[in-house]
Amino acid sequence: MNRISTVPNILTISRVLLLPIFAFGFFMESKRGTVLALLIFVLCCVTDYLDGYYARAYKQTTRLGRILDPIADKILVSIAVLFLVGFNMLSRFALIPSAIILCREVVISGVRDISESTDGHFKTALLAKWKTAMQMASISIVILASVLESRTLASIGEAMLWCSAVIAVCSGFIYCKRMTF
Question: Angle, to 10 degrees, between the axis of helix 126-148 and the axis of helix 151-177?
Fold first, then answer.
């Protein structure tokens, strides 16, 4: 299917278009703003699930969608991690998994580009889907911890961020290993 205006593509594009509202929530520098950021982030996570579901269930998979969806995910997670660090919602120690996640996303974007240009398809590994889910859950928990002013919840979110960094490295190795140059 080559149509641009499929439900999955619209959901993917909406995820990117919601990011300025997500950012605005942080810049409000209030509990209300943090709640707004959390709600927008969760909405973006839901659209990530729904675009994949609709693409498979209704056979609306497009080449554009295969390219845009992972880019939208990487933008969402990268911006969220940067904002969590920039607005001191993560400890300095959490800069390590944040940097790992961001570096992995850049490397895998390159691997994806090479794969798409050589054999025309880059199949997402199941472990990478788990990585994305863990990242989204950890980011949501860290933002929620800020809303609730819960140090315990923040620690759980950071621990999950570390786990997602480990999964990111493992899935990154899987992708690089299956590359043929």
Answer: 160
The answer to the question of residue 89 being in a domain is yes
1: in domain: no
| Residue type, position 78, single letter | S
Evaluate if pTM is beyond 0.85.
Answer: yes
For the chain, the domain total comes to 1
Q: What angle do CA 4, 6, 10 make, to 5 degrees?
A: 85
Q: 30: domain range? A: 7-177
What's the pLDDT tens digit per position in 32-51? Answer: 999 999 999 999 999 999 99
Cα-Cα-Cα-Cα dihedral of 98, 102, 104, 110, to 10°? 180
What is the arithmetic mean of pLDDT over 38-67?
91
The pLDDT of residue 42 is: 98
Give the ranges where 28-150 is alpha helix by DSSP (H).
Answer: 31-57, 63-86, 95-118, 126-148
Q: Is residue 119 part of a domain?
A: yes
Rg of the chain's alpha carbons, rounded to an integer?
Answer: 17
Which tens digits make up the pLDDT trace of 137-150?
999 999 999 999 99
Residue 167: closest CA among 85, 79, 104 = 104
| CATH number of the domain encompassing residue 138 | 1.20.120.1760
